[in-house]
Design brief:
Layout lengths: L18 H17 L2 H10 L4 H13 L5 H9 L8 H20 L7 E4 L2 E7 L4 H34 L9 H24 L15 H21 L5 H4 L6 H13 L1 H17 L5 H9 L4 H26 L4 H24 L6 H4 L1 H24 L5 H28 L6 H6 L2 H19 L1 H8 L4 H9 L5 H26 L15
Antiparallel strand pairs: 1-2
Helix pairs in contact: 1-6, 1-7, 1-8, 3-6, 3-17, 3-22, 4-6, 4-17, 5-6, 5-8, 6-7, 6-16, 6-17, 7-13, 11-17, 11-20, 11-22, 13-16, 14-16, 14-19, 14-20, 16-17, 16-21, 17-22
């Protein structure tokens, strides 16, 4: 089988096309902020000391904004600007992202939850008891920046998909894996910057100095403007990609509707939503185990994430070289089981005080990076197989929106499960009695059992490989009823997630047991 597009492959290592790699690097810097644990953990947990379910709610709300990114996939497909469908929208996204982080820099610098006494953090004195109120404007601003970043992400990945469709089937996917490697380097830079610059007494770190949050946000805003430069001057949509006429909305909608009615597309939508939702369920006790019992400070967190990023880069290279044509089911089954069992072992040894070492506890992040990297590449590969010319943005946008709506759902499930064991408050971890340990253990055990249920969707909804997808697409089989059912399920879950997260962030309702709190 040959390429899906008759044009010759793009050499993205040349200067005029290397912009997709530069942009992926910048995108990785911001992706680690909103999707990784380094910055979110340092700012909202170590600095503001939010309760476990509030911390999960913050992550959920920020990431949830990404679920409406698919709208920009539609817009960039049918409304080219100056003859180009991707680069102008990448620039719009970078401008909005930069302004959002500049707004964070202009907000009043928040006080840490505990009192800073010289070079130390005095945890016996609370200096900011209104930490959740302090966090709110930053959460909303970060959510706005995330939304603008999603515009850049969808537009950039649509361009990469266009390049990917030109590759022959035996090595199709190499462009996507290379771009993810560059994104990993960007994530690595964020990890190092947080570990060094946000490692002072306010973060319970080891240095006597630290930069303010306002200064850090301003630096991020500058990096966003670097993304604007790389989009305009080092990224090129070649003539056959940029000379796109404006298509009628009705014709475009009909073509898109045919794609999303395909059996393969509907199956993959179900897979992305349910596999990700079950696999990412996490107890709200995890963040407290990490900060109080394992005593993870910025330096161990930084070192573990550096190793995790390096492993991610290596795994992407190995995947590109040796696993690109291996069954997706086998790869994901192995990684799913590995991460569940390894992380559970680390949690058990930490909970029952066999090994309470920050470097040991952070080792689970290394396993997590490997799995999330494989899943991200898989979504991009399948998007390229299912989409047709001029519909790359909408196809990737829809699948990405579904994928990003799953973690917030997972956090809600985790909060509800954890509420039965009352593991969000610090008191349980400070007492550290046998009863407290078993409550935390039971909470985490329930969540790990839910994680393993994701394997069911792996073998029932995921196609084996690229060749099988193309063969199945030739049958032209439609799933209209299952498609409509999925739309109804997705919209209902999305509405529930938005409402739940808004209540979790509000000080008057965040204590509700339904949201994972200890009760109002």
């Amino acid at each position: 089988m040959t390429a899906l597009d008759n044009h010759p492959p793009i050499n993205y290592l040349k200067l005029k096309t290397a912009g997709i790699l530069y942009n992926k690097f910048c995108l990785g810097i911001f992706s680690e902020l909103v999707w990784g644990t380094t910055f979110i953990y340092s700012f909202f947990q170590l600095y503001l000391n939010l309760e476990g379910h509030q911390y999960n709610g913050v992550i959920s709300f920020i990431q949830l904004i990404w679920t409406i990114a698919f709208t920009w996939g539609f817009v960039s497909d049918i409304m080219p600007i100056y003859g180009k469908r991707r680069i102008p929208y990448m620039v719009i996204g970078w401008i909005g992202c930069s302004l959002s982080f500049a707004f964070c820099a202009l907000l009043k610098n928040p006080q840490p939850y505990f009192l800073v006494d010289g070079c130390y953090l005095n945890k016996s004195i609370i200096s900011n008891p209104w930490s959740i109120e302090t966090a709110e404007p930053f959460v909303y601003a970060l959510a706005a920046g995330t939304y603008m970043l999603s515009i850049t992400q969808v537009s950039l990945m649509s361009l990469i998909m266009e390049y990917n469709r030109r590759e022959p089937i035996y090595n199709r996917g190499k462009t996507t894996t290379c771009s993810h490697i560059m994104e990993a380097f960007g994530r690595l830079l964020t990890v190092v910057s947080v570990g060094i610059l946000l490692n002072g007494p306010s973060f319970n770190g080891i240095f006597c100095w630290e930069i303010s949050m306002s200064q850090y946000f301003m630096g991020l805003s500058f990096i966003g403007f670097v993304g604007i430069f790389t989009s305009l001057f080092t990224t090129v949509e070649e003539s056959n990609l940029s000379t796109v006429s404006k298509e009628s909305i009705s014709k475009y909608s009909n073509e898109l509707w045919k794609i999303i009615s395909e059996k393969e597309f509907v199956k993959f939508c179900y897979f992305v939503l349910f596999y990700s939702a079950f696999f990412n369920v996490q107890s709200s006790a995890s963040v407290k185990v990490k900060s109080i019992w394992a005593r993870v400070t910025p330096i161990p967190n930084m070192i573990s994430n550096i190793f995790a990023s390096l492993l991610f880069i290596i795994s992407m290279y190995l995947y590109k070289m040796y696993l690109i044509n291996v069954s997706w089911r086998k790869v994901l089954c192995f990684t799913t089981c590995s991460i569940v069992f390894v992380t559970f072992l680390v949690d058990v040894l930490t909970i029952f005080n066999y090994i309470r070492n920050p470097y040991f506890y952070c080792s689970e992040a290394i396993i997590i990076y490997f799995t999330t990297g494989i899943v991200a590449v898989l979504i991009l590969q399948v998007s390229g197989e299912l989409s047709t010319s001029k519909l790359e943005g909408a196809t990737f946008g829809i699948l990405t929106s579904i994928a990003t709506s799953a973690p917030p759902i997972s956090l809600i499930i985790g909060n509800i499960v954890s509420a039965n064991f009352d593991v969000s408050n610090d008191d349980r971890y400070l007492r550290d009695s046998d009863d407290d340990r078993w409550s935390v253990f039971n909470s985490i055990l329930c969540c790990k059992c839910i994680n393993l249920c994701a394997i069911v969707f792996l073998f029932t909804l995921l196609t084996e490989q690229k060749c099988q997808i193309q063969e199945n697409l030739k049958s032209l089989m439609k799933w209209p009823l299952r498609r409509n059912a999925f739309v109804a399920i997705y919209c209902s879950v999305l509405l529930l997630t938005v409402v739940t997260n808004l209540f979790t962030l509000h000080p008057l309702t965040s204590c509700s047991t339904l949201l994972g709190g200890s009760g109002c």
